[in-house]
């Protein structure tokens, strides 16, 4: 039997040479990941048309190999390639399938293919005068808009929940039986899309739920199909905008901080996007260098933290959020927030005098503590860009905190996977109440140091009643002890966390295989549905499918 790469090259004779990689080339390009996992690939292929993908599916069924689709392949901390069975795996790279199709500029509806990155969409909107924001994430400019929505990722612009903003999905269903029966097309569209006989077919792009059973959601955190296009509803650039950074120096004020966030999000829904709350260590990991050196496998001491916090003027907790709306509304909400934040030590406004003066002074005298201030202002500026939908790499240096080989450098496109950063995310949902959050903070601070992992805490409030925490477990990927500690740490957080009611909203590919139980009804139903969409089980069989 010919090798898989030979089958592909015999079939796709018109592809450019660089679109088809053999096992060795594929391993070099696609396997590096922040989890320290190894994956076997037999080949990789880059395709750009629906018809080529359909033919690839046919080949996979005939020859019994697996397809692992990726869009930008940057699922850092979670893994882009899922574990699979004993069959050979072909990586399907969709990065070059990157068309952007305007649906309605007036309504802010736009369709993107898998390869469209945050930067590409941002440039398109800017070049074509679309007054809308790109749904960016902390992962930055090189990441796919579509894949992040399929992962049900979130950001901090007003359309925080990225899948919630997806109105329409087009996908190739890997079951040829459907192709025969449904007007000879392999492309799925919703019940509304199939009824619409107009040329423009607009309504399906603006209505998420279709008609009858809602199917589109099955394409997220799953492997039912290959998604080729999504239409997203963009958030309009507001007439008025300001970001706030609220510093809280007293650790005892965590309860008041949580109440502030909950009430603010409830009272100003639609005006304030989401709110981030970060602890001192997390802030330091963003703005300072690791005092132990990036090669060390040890946590910062209290003395080191105190010294760094003083030098960088970092508080115990910091709240970050933005107000979007008409100028008058922003002004009114700003004054209410200022009053409500009275319990805190300082509130910095992006349009305030403090930032303007700070920039002036630190630009004029960029040394000593002003140098640290300048770095911080730069980070604040980039944070503000993110809240306005401009992709930035401001969050990425975090992944390099324990990487002794490569320094983070925002002047180039950073890639924590190819730079061999070690990172696993623990991303649990937490019940929104003061006591639980206090308990969670103590739990993280007690657990991660046992494994020599720095406890870096961020809470993102997606709604007033829904809070997700992202704990980056950062380790030196080339240190076997550190890697083992990182996995053990994640395991304890996951298992002990479940007992306290903290449950991940997203998991890395190894956890998906190891901790999810095939016995529970939820996953049994997923398996049955998967068998309908993909009866030969050829699309990433191990992805969220225990
Ligand atoms: C410092 C840092 C900050 C981060 N901040 C955020 C953040 O703010 N929010 C957030 O959500 N994430 C964040 N991440 C995590 C992650 O890097 C992003 O979510 C990233 O966008 C996901 O990778 P990707 O878009 O390249 O997806 P890919 O790796 O391309 O795909 C992810 C998965 O989706 C499936 N898939 C992809 N495309 C298709 C398709 N067309 N059809 C079918 N299945 C497909 C694949 O099987 C794959 O397993 C962060 C990571 C780091 C290191």
Automatic annotation (TrEMBL):
InterPro entries: Cytok_DH_C_sf (IPR016170), FAD-bd_PCMH (IPR016166), FAD-bd_PCMH-like_sf (IPR036318), FAD-bd_PCMH_sub1 (IPR016167), FAD-bd_PCMH_sub2 (IPR016169), FAD-linked_Oxase-like_C (IPR016164), Oxid_FAD_bind_N (IPR006094)
Superkingdom of source: Bacteria
Any GO MF annotation of the entry: D-lactate dehydrogenase (cytochrome) activity
Entry keyword set: FAD, Flavoprotein
Tagged with keyword Flavoprotein: yes
The species this protein was found in: Alteromonas sediminis
Similarity section: Belongs to the FAD-binding oxidoreductase/transferase type 4 family.
Full protein name: FAD-binding oxidoreductase
The keyword Flavoprotein is assigned to this record: yes
Domain FAD-binding PCMH-type: 34-237
PANTHER family per UniProt: D-LACTATE DEHYDROGENASE (PTHR11748), D-LACTATE DEHYDROGENASE, MITOCHONDRIAL-RELATED (PTHR11748:SF111)
Pfam families, A to Z: FAD_binding_4
Cited SUPFAM superfamilies: FAD-binding/transporter-associated domain-like (SSF56176), FAD-linked oxidases, C-terminal domain (SSF55103)
GO process annotations (BP): lactate catabolic process
Extent of the signal sequence: none
């Amino acid at each position: 039997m010919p090798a898989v790469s030979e089958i592909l090259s015999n079939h796709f004779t018109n592809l450019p040479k660089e679109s088809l990689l053999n096992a060795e080339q594929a391993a070099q390009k696609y396997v590096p990941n922040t989890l320290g996992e190894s994956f076997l690939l037999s080949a990789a292929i880059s395709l750009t048309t629906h018809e080529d993908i359909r033919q690839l599916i046919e080949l996979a069924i005939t020859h019994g190999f697996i397809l692992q689709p990726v869009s930008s392949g940057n699922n850092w901390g979670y893994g882009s390639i899922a574990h699979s069975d004993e069959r050979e795996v072909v990586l399907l790279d969709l990065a070059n399938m990157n068309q952007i199709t305007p649906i309605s500029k007036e309504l802010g509806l736009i369709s993107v293919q898998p390869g469209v990155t945050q930067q590409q969409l941002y440039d398109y909107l800017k070049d074509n005068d679309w007054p809308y924001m790109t749904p960016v994430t902390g992962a930055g400019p090189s990441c796919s808009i579509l894949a992040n929505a399929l992962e049900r990722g979130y950001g901090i612009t007003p359309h925080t929940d990225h899948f919630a903003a997806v109105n329409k999905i087009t996908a190739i269903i890997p079951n040829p039986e459907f192709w025969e029966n449904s007007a000879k097309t392999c492309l799925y569209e919703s019940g509304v899309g199939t009824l619409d006989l107009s040329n423009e077919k607009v309504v399906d792009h603006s209505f998420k739920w279709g008609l009858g059973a809602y199917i589109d959601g099955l394409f997220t955190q799953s492997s039912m199909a290959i998604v080729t296009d999504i239409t997203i509803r963009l958030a309009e650039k507001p007439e008025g905008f300001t970001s706030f950074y609220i510093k809280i120096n007293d650790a005892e004020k965590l309860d008041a901080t949580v109440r502030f966030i909950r009430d603010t999000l409830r009272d100003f829904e639609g005006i304030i996007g989401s709110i981030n709350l970060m602890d001192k260590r997390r802030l330091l990991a963003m703005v300072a260098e690791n005092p132990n050196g990036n090669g060390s496998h040890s946590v910062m001491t209290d003395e080191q933290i105190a010294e760094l916090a003083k030098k960088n003027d970092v508080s115990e907790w910091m709240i970050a959020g933005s107000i979007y709306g008409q100028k008058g509304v922003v002004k009114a909400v700003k004054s209410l927030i200022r009053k409500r934040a009275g319990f805190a030590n300082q509130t910095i406004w992006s349009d305030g005098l403090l930032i303007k003066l700070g920039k002036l002074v630190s630009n004029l005298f960029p040394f000593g503590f002003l140098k640290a201030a300048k770095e911080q202002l730069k980070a604040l500026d980039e944070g503000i860009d993110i809240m306005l939908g401009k992709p930035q790499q401001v969050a990425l240096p975090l992944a390099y905190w324990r990487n002794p080989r490569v320094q983070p450098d925002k002047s180039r496109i950073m890639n924590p996977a190819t730079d061999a950063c070690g990172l696993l995310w623990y991303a649990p949902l937490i019940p929104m109440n003061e006591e639980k959050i206090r308990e969670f903070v103590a739990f993280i601070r007690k657990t991660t140091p046992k494994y020599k992992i720095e406890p870096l805490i961020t809470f993102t409030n997606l709604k007033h009643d829904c809070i997700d925490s992202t704990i980056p477990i950062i380790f030196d990927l080339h240190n076997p002890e550190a890697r083992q500690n990182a996995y053990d740490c994640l395991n304890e957080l996951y298992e002990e966390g479940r007992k306290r009611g903290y449950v991940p909203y997203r998991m890395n590919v190894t956890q998906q295989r190891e901790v999810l139980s095939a016995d529970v009804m939820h996953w049994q139903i997923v398996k049955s549905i998967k068998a309908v969409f993909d009866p030969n089980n050829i699309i990433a069989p191990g992805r969220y499918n225990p």
